[in-house]
Structures are given as structure tokens and as C-alpha cells.
């Protein structure tokens, strides 16, 4: 199994898209998987879910489980499948249940403030 580490992300984290703040959290988690860059997972309750639309897209990770995806609707554009969530993650990564990860891009930022 790939080495996966989950820990509390230190400090306050924010996610922004299209100039809008989608969420801010002091309870974010940092997931590190092998040699991949760490991913910050935000608790769902800290995200403005009104900006997110569930899509039919899904992927499977043998280590984490099945991911559901969301598009982010901003004033100027829709970022297709830009966020994901593991609704029923495998037991070793159960802490990421009810959390969202985001694909960082030119139009979406995840940063510590």
C-alpha cells in the first residue's frame, strides 16, 4: 500500500475561485500520499456548498476509495470537476470523510493565510 499520512493542517486555510472565497478553515487536514504533493482537505461545513454542483464524474483510488466530484460555479465560469470528496473512504483514511479536496489551478487557489 502507498504510504498515506493524514495530519491536521497547521494554521488557517482558504480556498478561492473566480475571486470568491469558497471556504476558510482552521480544521483542514493535510493528506500526503507517497511522493505526491500534499493535498489540503477542507471540512464540508467550512465550504460554501452553494457554489458547488455535484457531477456524475467519479474515480477510484485503491487506497482511499471512490471519489465523487463537484463543479464550482463562479460569476465568470464553471470549473468542471474541480473539487472531490470521498463519501465512504477506506478505513485507513476515514478522517477525510465529509471533507473536500480541490484541484489548484490558475483560477482556483488553496493557501494558508
Automatic annotation (TrEMBL):
InterPro entries: DUF427, DUF427_sf. Residues 14-103 form the DUF427 domain. Coiled coil: none annotated. This is DUF427 domain-containing protein. The lineage of its organism: Bacteria, Pseudomonadati, Pseudomonadota, Alphaproteobacteria, Rhodobacterales.
